[in-house]
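Holo model, NAP. Inputs:
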Amino acid sequence: MKLTGNLLIGANEVPATEGTMKALNPATNQLIEPDFALGGVADVDRAANLADEAFDQYSHTSLAQRSAFLERIADNLDAVTPELAARAALETGLPEAQLQGEAAKAATQFRQFAAVVRKGRFLQVAIDPAQPDRQPRPRMDHRLQKIAIGPVAIFGASNFPISYSVAGGDTASALAAGATVIVKAHNAHPGASEIQARAIRQAVQDSGLPEGVFSMVRGGGNAIGEALVDHPLIKAVTFTGSEQGGMALYRRAQLRPEPIPVFTEMTSINPTFILPHALATRGEQIGDGFVERMLVNVGQACLKPAILIAIDGSGFEALRAAMAKRVAAAPARPMLTPGIHASYTRGLDDLQNAGAKLVVEGSAANGDVDGQSALLEVDGQHFLTETALAHEVFGPAALLVKVRDEAEMLAVARSLRGQLSATLHLEQSDFELAQRLLPILERRTGRIVVNAFAHPQEVSFATIHGGPFPASSDSRFTSVGMTSIERFLRPVSYQGFPDALLPEALREINPLGVPRSVDGQ
Ligand code: NAP
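Output:
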């Protein structure tokens, strides 16, 4: 596919209105062709108007038509996977084989949502039939279903350039809900973004859907993102990135004349607790697994385990030695952008200024944006007094927290802010301590893992990728998994309707065969 660098606004190819940019290959520090158009407020306005015009038709597509559309996107992604992975590798420095896996995951997500749409359970139909003879007064017929919230703006993530980007789970779940979508492409991978956007746009055209179902814009600086959040026709926003960026957009949306939901996925240190018997029997093995997960994506992963808490003693010494050996052998690899690299270096300094001691560093960096791995350590008492130590450092680093005893381990757990995940490594003889930790962790995390590490690849009905603030701005929802569709749905109740006027899913004979609750049963 020849990249044009244009903004894709509905069916239109829109050249630069606010200058151009080039992608950077972080592995070579070289700019890559071609020029990519940067847009502005007028481009957002055009995309939002098209998304609004398309909304009524798209949100009323039959379940069969919408699920066929999602499957067509998946097929189109499959067809471009080799060039998509190759371009994403150039723009991110991540391994091409891994990016092929990401493309496959993105296609799978669209297929999974196609199945969700076909079955219709997401409509959450509830029917309370009329009870004309009910005393002391009759009950009217009430029927409820969920409908799409309206046009949605999606901020693609930098760190997973396919499965959390233009064709990522946010886009798949929003389109599945019946929402029209405008993606703000991340400037860290403009070519990969264009390939994904073209695959989606082709599916819109082939499915005979209105052009405004999908658009992709791009800009330099905050103006384009702000215009998206401010636009009165946009009814919800999703975001994956920094706490600072996410909260700026969240606050902005609440100051609109009409506030709208902003679903942000921001920051998490994913604490890992090794309980005493697990530490004694297999501490070194757990430490190996921890370092392996910490280095995935050069540590640029929302589920990266960033702190490890264990009780002082000979088991702790052995754990530290095993981890130090692995970290010391880790090669430095290119990080996604110079900005992310700079903030990683700053973050390591901040940890040390806050009192963390450097245990070991990995191989020295060769390139300007290579992230050198690091293992740091602090004792539990100090961790409890320095909040800066509990902040995410996005990159290949982790902090060992050496606690005195079980009470201090519980205190460290209690001190944590909201997390995407927390992990317990335990043996049966650790259950009593685990039972004291669990209520503390349930209040603070979206996912609790036992004897494994949280994995981003699972996309299922029981997956939660969210959690209390600052992991996300709304702990009631997830940004990954089949229930992520709920972010884009709202309930409408139809009271006293003649059957022929009801949406199909609510009609008496249930022509779509969707699951329905009747009188709460
Ligand atoms: P980011 O700086 O938060 O940017 C994410 C997206 O939001 C970009 O498209 C950015 O546009 C836009 N944006 C950010 N702030 C904005 C604002 N105030 N107004 C309008 N638009 C705004 O995240 P990033 O570039 O992906 O990485 C930076 C840092 O974010 C990392 O170092 C890391 O700490 C964190 N991060 C965390 C996760 C996680 O999963 N925990 C994932 C990714 C990043 P522009 O690029 O055009 O400015």
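The chain has 13 helices and 22 strands. The longest helix spans residues 63-92.
Archived with the compound record.
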